[in-house]
Amino acid sequence: MNLNLFDAEETHSWREELCPDAVVLRGFALAGEVDILSALEQVFSVAPLRHLVTPGGFRMSVAMSNCGTYGWVSDRTGYRYDTVDPDSGKPWPSMPALFSTLAADAATQAGFSDFKPDACLINRYAAGTRLSLHQDKDEQDFSQPIVSVSLGVPAIFLFGGTQRTDKTMRVKLTHGDVVVWGGAARLRYHGILPVKTDSHPLTGEYRINLTLRKAI
Ligand code: MD6
Ligand code: FE
Asked: What is the rounded CA–CA span in Å between residue 110 and residue 65?
């Protein structure tokens, strides 16, 4: 693992390369923590967190919502990006400028310039919640990176290869960490191990993850 130090302007953050084209920016979101969480409360008041059903009929343990032009949804018919929240029939809440700015800045730090996310998937994990190994492949343009913001209770991120059976590395993600991946890493399998019982002053018993994408 490569460890470099740099000073961002308003926060002290450092970077850890996971592999070519995937980097953890430790603490990158810390300066915005309070504003991010209040923007999220606004989003949840319009598009409440809910447990989606997989195409196989299983209720996901992660609670999800979205903001931005497109939201990621799953139901018995499959996975897709949709402009409308299926629970309300209304468009998803718009993406707070803070989110798109943070994501573009993080992407630039990681070497991906001009990232303009149009979708933000929000995942909330309670104790015991996990996200099984998957690839993010519902987006149209795999040349665009994904920016992932971790808040609250820590979790272990599993990071594998391009085959499901490839060996995985375990990366602890804590409050304020931002992962950016794209390019050669874009289709790597990844997941979250069951979250341990813990609490954080700003999120209580939960871990919250934002993944910002260019869906279309
Ligand atoms: C999570 N993240 O950290 C789930 N996907 O809760 C993801 O599934 C993910 O962190 C693509 C890129 C980065 C991610
Ligand atoms: Fe993912």
From this structure: 26
User: Which residue segments constitute the domains of the chain, with CATH numbers given?
Assistant: 16-213 (2.60.120.590)
Using the 8-state DSSP alphabet, how is residue 19 labeled? E
**Ligand 1 mean position, distance from CA 75 (Å):** 19
Q: Are 202 and 151 in contact (CB under 8 A)?
A: yes
Give nearest CA residue, ligand 1 atom 13. 148
**159-195 confidence digits (pLDDT tens):** 999 999 999 999 999 999 999 999 999 999 999 999 9
Give CA–CA dist 76/56, Å, rounded.
7
> Which of the 8 DSSP states describes residue 65?
E
139 CB under 6 A from ligand 1? no
Instruction: Say if ligand 1 is within 6 A of residue 190 CB.
Output: yes
Counting from 1 in the atom list of ligand 1, the atom nearest the Cα of 123 is 6
- CA separation for the pair 36, 29 (Å, rounded): 9
- Give me ligand 2 centre to Cα 39, in Å: 22
Structure tokens at 31: 């300066």
